[in-house]
Amino acid sequence: MWVDQLPPGYSGRILQGARIDPRTLEAEAGFYGHHDPERCPSQLLRTQLALRGDSLILRSHRLVPLPTR
């Protein structure tokens, strides 16, 4: 699974799942810091996926800070 291909510790910081655009295979997920309240991630994980056979694989990823509220 593509989430398992992220750096160590990343998968445990994606608490609400990811949204994947089936046309572009771009995915976004809230990325929670250790002190972020539930439902308020401080960053957004953006990924580019690819299809290999019947599996999605990770091509690239980056973290984007979210504005503070």
In short:
By secondary structure, the chain is mainly β.
Protein described:
The chain is mainly beta and 69 residues long. It has no helices and four strands. A four-stranded antiparallel beta sheet has the order 1-2-3-4, with no helix packed on it. Strand 1 and strand 2 form a beta hairpin. The radius of gyration is 12 Å and the shape is elongated.
Helix/strand layout:
Layout lengths: L17 E3 L5 E6 L11 E10 L2 E11 L4
Antiparallel strand pairs: 1-2, 2-3, 3-4
Key structural traits:
69 residues; mainly beta; four-stranded antiparallel beta sheet; 43% strand; elongated
**First and last CA, distance:** 33 Å
Order of helices and strands: EEEE
Low-confidence stretches: none
Share of β-strand residues: 35-45%
Secondary-structure content class: mainly beta
| Share of helix, binned | under 10%
**Total DSSP E strands:** 4
How many strands, which pairing sense, and closed or not: the largest β-sheet? 4 strands, antiparallel
